[in-house]
Write a structure and sequence with these properties.
Length: 120
């Protein structure tokens, strides 16, 4: 595990083997990051978020924040991201809503280009 000195990683976060957490990244308490995943720089991952193996997150990505929906009432929801995903600059991935499945789920081998917003 390689964590840059400016990164903030909650002590209860689960970090896999050979993970790289770059400058100014923030990793929250209920986050799990799989082996060989890289957070390049300025990445924020919070909420109940599970990230698979060998993913790569580029600067200013935000994952696991509450859904942007007026019916959301702070229910416990989550984000699950599979293996081998590339998430480019400024992508946002919000948690699911309780009246949906409660989970924003991303499978394996995806490529999200800059400024993509994923939510439901």
């Amino acid at each position: 595990m390689n964590i840059h000195p400016t990164a903030i990683v909650h002590p209860k976060a689960t970090i896999g083997e050979d993970v790289i957490i770059g400058p100014y990244c923030v990793v929250g308490e209920h986050v799990t990051i799989g082996d060989q995943t890289e957070l390049v720089a300025h990445v924020c991952i919070e909420g109940h978020t599970d990230i698979g193996r060998r993913c790569r997150f580029f600067p200013f990505v935000s994952i696991g924040t509450p859904p942007q929906h007026l019916q959301y009432k702070d229910e416990p929801t989550r984000v699950c991201i599979g293996d081998h995903n590339i998430i480019r600059e400024n992508v946002t991935i919000n948690r699911g809503t309780a009246f949906g499945s409660g989970v924003t789920r991303i499978g394996h081998h995806n490529f999200f280009m800059a400024y993509t917003h994923v939510a439901h």
